[in-house]
Amino acid sequence: MSNTLKASMIETITALVLCPSNMAIHFGAGGDPNCWAPAYVNALIMSGTNILIFASFWIVKFMLVFRVPKEPFR
Questions:
Q1: In the chain, is it the N or the C terminus that has fewer CB atoms within a 10 Å radius of its CB?
Q2: Which DSSP helix (H) or strand (E) runs through 73?
Q3: Torsion sign (Cα): 55, 57, 58, 64
Q4: How far apart are CA 61 and CA 24, in angstroms?
Q5: CA distances (Å), 3 to each of 9, 12, 71, in order?
């Protein structure tokens, strides 16, 4: 497991422990919160976003490293 993924998991666990029980997850045009959710929803959204970003970078790296052109560029 890479250090980036470990750091993401630690960040998610820390946010889950330190966040209040209910958090604002959406704000209106005036800046006032208009949607509330439990803290674990925030942690799931944060970890899901981090995993998607990690996976996209890993896939791009995999495509760039292991892709060998059949003939040289001219």
A1: C
A2: none
A3: positive
A4: 36
A5: 10, 14, 36
Domain residue ranges in the chain: 3-66
Q: Which amino acid is at 32?
A: D
For residue 36, the tally of other CB atoms under 10 A from its CB is 11
Q: The pTM is what?
A: 0.61
Going from the C-alpha of 44 to that of each of 18, 31, 37, 70, 74, the distances in angstroms are 14, 23, 11, 43, 48
17 to each of 20, 30, 54, how far by Cα in Å?
8, 29, 23
- Chain segment 22-64, per-residue pLDDT in tens: 888 889 999 999 989 998 888 888 888 888 888 888 888 777 7
Beta bridge partners of 38: 22
